[in-house]
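#onboarding

Welcome to the new folks! Below is a worked example of what a typical request in this channel looks like: someone posts a single protein sequence, and someone else replies with the predicted structure as tokens. Don't worry about understanding the tokens yet, we'll cover that in week two.

Example request:
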Amino acid sequence: MNKSQRLKRNIKKHKHSYILMAPYFSLFFLFTVFPVVISMILSLTYFNMLEFPRWVGWQNYARLFLEDDVFLIALKNTFLFAAITGPISYVACFVFAWLINEFRPKIRAFLTLIFFAPSISGNIFFIWLIIFSGDSYGYANGFLMRIGMIYEPIQWLQDPTYVLAIVMLVQLWLSLGTAFLAFIAGLQNIDQTLYEAASIDGIRNRWQELWYITLPSMRPQLMFGAVIQITMSFAVADVSMALAGFPSVQYAAHTIVTHLIDYGSIRFEMGYASAIATILFIIMMTTNLITQKLLRKVGE
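Example response:
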């Protein structure tokens, strides 16, 4: 029996399951797969939303990497941002979830709300504008001047030296979101008899329990959390624009997504914007595949 025959037999055998999944897959294809494919095709055209798309081939990509210096700055900032905030936020989500899981239910619920609150509070990150205000009334400047470390206010959000680090700090503050809840749910659903069996088999401390039982039992949640944190790290835009302005001083906090917003929502160069989106999609997919391979080694 060849592969096509096995596929047909499998579809016929599980046809009821495929029928039940059909509505979801139809919506997924229509609103996710189809737009991605259309974006990739548009990335090979010149399209200003007024004229019919004109085929230009790889010209948009050549312009991105050979002529667009701002995109190269955005690419560097995005990789730096993702390399720092991605792993830190991912580990922080798991560590805080692991620690909170040890408390009684009421305390655990309260602490979960405290840590999760910043990520669901809308534009609450604007409070950081007060902390890093460029005058002496800003909390950071006021504190440093009071202890004698500086003698005049620092323009935190207008100085290219500090602005990217501040955006990273705020993004980390906001990072205990969906992945954090997924980890708590995963920890709650681990079969406790596994720990009892492990203690009989020679597991002697919490670190061995973590590596050989907890993490392998949470692989689905770990993968889901990795996808969420990778997406957040590479797709940062709102925090950067709100704190550093758009565009930021010397493009110090410019990212691929803010560059995409510039060309897609302001200049309406949709072909060029689609090329930017395609590059970001490839970067995120590659990172996700690498992360999957790494997570498969957990517990080995």
